[in-house]
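Mods, move this if it's the wrong board.
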Amino acid sequence: MNAALDLVDFISASPSPFHCVVAAAGRLTAAGFVEVHDDDAAVAVSPGQGAFMKRAGTLFAWVPGSDSPSEAGFRLIGAHTDSPNLRLKPKPNQTKEGYATWAVEPYGGVLLHTWTDRDLGLAGRIAIRDATSKSPRLELVRLDMPLARIANLAIHLDREVTTRGLILNKQTHLPPIIGLSGAPSVEKLVSDAVGCAEADVLGFDLGLYDTQPPTVGGATGEFVFGARLDNQASCYSALMALIEAQRISRPPAHTSVICLFDHEECGSGSERGAESVLLKHLLEQLVDGHPNPSVGGLRRSLARSFCVSADMAHGVHPNYADKHEPSHKPMLNGGPVIKTNMNMSYATDAETGARFRQACREEGVPHQEFVVRSDIACGSTIGAIVAAGLAVRTVDVGCAMLSMHSIREQAGASDIANMTAVMRRLLVEG
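Not the wrong board. Structure tokens:
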């Protein structure tokens, strides 16, 4: 329960990928990790001394082992900070029929109908003119108030909606109402929030989010309800596992790394996504800068490494159980789920799946298995991307959940601590 409540606090602090990274960095700093920058000449730190690096919505953190990565390899845990939502277009301010609205674009695979009739806030980052530099200053923004709403059409004007279902046009039906004509512009709202002139706002990466806070729920507190469980719950477990792993008195031989990527929900193809060379560059620096150098470089390091790709898994829904493969029906609070796909949408194979199962058994944690039905297309995550890009052995896992990609999702409260425990074991024991 303590881990579930702590997760609720973490998600509450993270309405955007940028905020998620800041929340993670704050916890790392409090635990004694030091920050380095991706343009530093070197990122070397002493064995056992944690460090982290952040770029916008992506964060890497690591604890060097006693041996060179060329000898002992890496233990990697990957997750992603972003979640499906609605994001503002560059010129969002509109007036329609006397109402002020915003032009928005769906980000990722949004369950659109869940965003209607919700109290929506606005969060992300803005770029501000800096008189002393040619580069803009970046500031985080969070307008944590019921600012916007996507109103449903009354049933009296669409009698067939209960039989046909709600079908939303992404262009015409999603602009949220933020006030009457003449309401403040986006630029005015965010400039007031950070204390700059409206004209100095040069750009923004802003998205809507549900202002209803996450919570522990269910008849006996067995669930977590809230936004962005996919995949901030996995980010939380990876983060806490690394912090706990750093506290051991004697560091392991291998180097432990967590990789919290942005842009997974739209394919990972960005300068800070899992498909970029950002992680490879970091690992090269960790190999080259280790105080106990060894021959072989990154290639030899990765050959001796293991990666856990952690993203949420599809729990069986009691009202839609036929959507699951009959013998692969993960339950909420049933333990970590190992995800397999024969066509390698997930990176799990016999070797990597067995390694994770063994860690679960050693930790005394139950585990579950998931494969998608053969007549349903399989989703994907960063696992296959990292595995192919680095040629590193990888397993795909996650905690079972319901309502994936809804504005408000559901997971098992006890699964959070169990996943964290298995991750910690893999980081410490290898």
